[in-house]
Design goal:
With 196 residues, the protein is α+β, with helices and mostly antiparallel strands. Helix content is 46%, strand content 14%. It has a single domain, classed as 3-Layer(aba) Sandwich (NADH Oxidase), CATH 3.40.109.10. A four-stranded antiparallel β-sheet has the order 1-2-4-3, sandwiched between helices. Helix 3 packs antiparallel against helix 6.
Amino acid sequence: MIREIENRRSIRKYRSDEIDRKLIEEIIYSATLAPSAKNRQPWKFIVYQGEAKDKLVEVMRHGINSEKITHELMPEWAFAIPYAENTVRIMQEAPCLIAVLNTNQYTPFASIEREKRIVEICDSLSIGAAVENMILTATGYGLGTLWIANTCFAYNELIEFIGTDNQLTGIVAVGAANEAPPKRPRKALRDVVEYR
């Protein structure tokens, strides 16, 4: 497993090769094996390929264009809209997109009480573990992935298109990599670990 962790890269260029459904199910199955707070398993995965994927990408593009004008959802992050627009290109290129929902939570743009915020954090950590399982499994099969969080710029449009009030945590792009990025620098253990 350490090899998959070391070899994993965030892939932003994909070949058009379709991903076999059995392989997609294996990747998602690995996600369902992740630990979750109180064993709530707060995840749902919606797979988009072909025309359905193209429609999802178009909704993302439209939502970003709206946010570019209104700055309604992410006013302090307007500087990041060009990155989100590049994400649309990546999503269009990837042959498979997997929307990841938190089935216990709702929009992240509404305020909630402290106790519910703690539950939301725990559910988000659980989903993070599930997504990491997906990414590492895909890496083990020689596939590239990108964990996409820029969905926040088109959040309302995407939720409406998906047809859910569950919280959209993000989207994972999966496909055969058409690039081989170098390993990104990491902080030294001495800088991130403290023994007491």
